[in-house]
Amino acid sequence: MAIDSPALNTRRAAPRDWIPRWSSTAALRAVRATLVVPVLFAVSITVIGDLQVATFAAFGGFATLVMASFGGDRRDKLRAHFGLAVTGSVLLVIGTAASASLLLAAVVTLVVTFLVLFGGVVGPNAAAGGVAALLAYVLPAASPGTMSMVPARLGGWWLASVVGTAAVLLLSPRSPATALRDAASRAAGALADHLDAALRGGTGVDAAHEAAVEAKHHLIDEFTATPYRPTGLAAEDQALDTLVGLLEWCASVIADTTSEYPDLSGAPEVERELLVETSAGLREVSRLMAGRPGSFDAGELDRRIQASVERLRTLGSGTPGYVDAVHLSFHARTGAFAVREAVTEARAAVPGGRRSRLPGGLSMATLARVASPHTSLRSVWFVNSLRGAVALTAAVVVAGASGVEHGFWVVLGTLSVLRGNAAATGSTALRALIGTALGVVAGAVLLLVIGTSAPALWIALPIAVLVAGYAPGALPFTAGQAAFTVTVSVLFNLLAPAGWQIGVVRIEDVAIGCAVCLVVGALFWPRGARAVVADDLADAFRAGGAYLSAAANWALGLRHDQPSPAAATAAGARLDDALRGFLSEQGTKHVPKPDLWRLVMGTVRARLTAHSLAGLPNPHVEPDPFRRLLGDQAGQLAAWYDHLASRLDRTDHGDVPMLAPPVFPDLLRQPGASVRDLACALWVHEHIKHISARLAELVEPAGVVAAQRHRPWWR
């Protein structure tokens, strides 16, 4: 059976990054920057009359309005911008103090850069503000200055922060989290329509199925559209994050149910009532995510589940149709359990219900718990943060040791071209140099035409800012670099007229920064996120298989200590981050996305199946042969997942073929199973049968990923 993956058929194709495209978000960003940056610069120069204030107001404006892109409602954005202003102020002071000594600057840059970049694990707004906060540090750290300049520099930074934040609050597009809630509402409603169509029977089931698949694809697209999760640490954000996974699981369960039972109009009444109540639960999720009040009675769903259980208890294993009754009941109750969990998470995800409450409170213990799964070389956050820290430190050292006149541009050149792998970094470095050169040419032509006349430069400044503000994500990277170079040329000629020569200096400095970044990228992480994706896939399969085996033994009564989902959950989170990093890397993807998504969904299926089993009651009965056979089957599944993981990790197994997935007999159809045995174990049996049917589709994609991770990085 083919997997219903969000990438196989209708996943959006990413636009080529060299083709300009219209973006309303980029347009609003450009308008904000155009309205704020030139005005702040003019006020700082003509009214305040301080070059430090003007410099930090201009670059602070770019940091606040162009580099940082925060999500959430206005309160969330206000909180995020205030955090950026405070963090930037602290880093500005540290950077100014560290600039007094090259050795001190190198040590401090290594620590500060790692902490700022790694802090992105806290949530999307922390990640979105990382580069902007680093700008507040590298500008003073790589520029000559004394502590006496700190007040003026802070004045310019806070001027930009206050005015820029006001502009963001007034001119803001819809946030990714809002779009994600809309997509979740649409997906839940489409799943309810799909289930209702099957309950009615007739010809509308296929159309409802297609609509549900399309809505689920849209939900996954929204969830994976950014290089980091669009949800943070707040309890409502964590609930929304969990809800997306549960809706995926609901979609899979309902699709499997309707593929086997396309017409449920003739199903037993007790199962029909359970499915009707399940559909009502999905509509409750849809209402809550759309911001409408809910009215669903979860207790009624529980009563329908119990009624389904009682019906099976009245049937004997010799009753005609008993096996089919067990199978339909499994599908109905699995969907009901998934929807019940989804309703719980949807209620917790309602905005304002538990606003900005971190699980466990905002404390060092909470932050340590969130960061601890990522403190390894198998985490894309850790590796990216380490590589960025080493690259910026090397840039600071090279800038200081070489004695270049504008060391800040060396560091900024490194920061602007740092990408996920050496090949992507090299490509971006080349485009950065080309863009800078084009910007120099454009700036030189502009300055030759208008000269260094202040009125003409003031007219050119907002035009240059407009293009530079629109460029990120909407124009080719080269065009963005060119526009930023023109903006800098105009700014510096307003500060101290020097003509077109300022652009030539910037080409030299950016070239040094690009070279530093390329060397560090080749030494530290030449393969980029594709190697980490393979490692994290292996971890997720191992942890998911172990969790599945433990949960099955728990539900069978073969163990009595509650299985912990911690390892499987942490591995899944690392895989999600690595996958986003891989998909956001520039350059050719040698691993087909359908293959990648099959493997990712395989890990999700193992983890959620285990979660479903772990939620069953733990029977305190003596082990019997039937349950021991099921326990052995669960152990074989875990062993096969471990074998699959061994093909994805760092060891190259060459042409050694993979083991075929285990094939289990249908124990319900075997002679000698008593009614008492089935009452204890039929749920575990159905879970194992359901997940075993999807194992074969993982073999070929695993081989593709394993082959690609062992290719030389330059190929």
Arithmetic mean of pLDDT: 78
| Morphology call | elongated
Structural class: mainly alpha
Give the helix level as a range of percent.
Answer: over 70%
Q: Give the total of beta strands.
A: 0
- Taken together, the total number of domains comes to 3
Rg over C-alpha atoms, rounded to the nearest angstrom: 29 Å
Tally the helices: 26
**Which stretches are poorly predicted, pLDDT < 50 over at least 5 residues?**
1-17, 353-361, 420-426, 672-677
Could you spell the SSE succession in H and E letters? HHHHHHHHHHHHHHHHHHHHHHHHHH
Distance between the termini: 34 Å
Proportion of strand residues:
under 5%
The largest sheet, given as strand count, sense and whether it forms a barrel, is: none
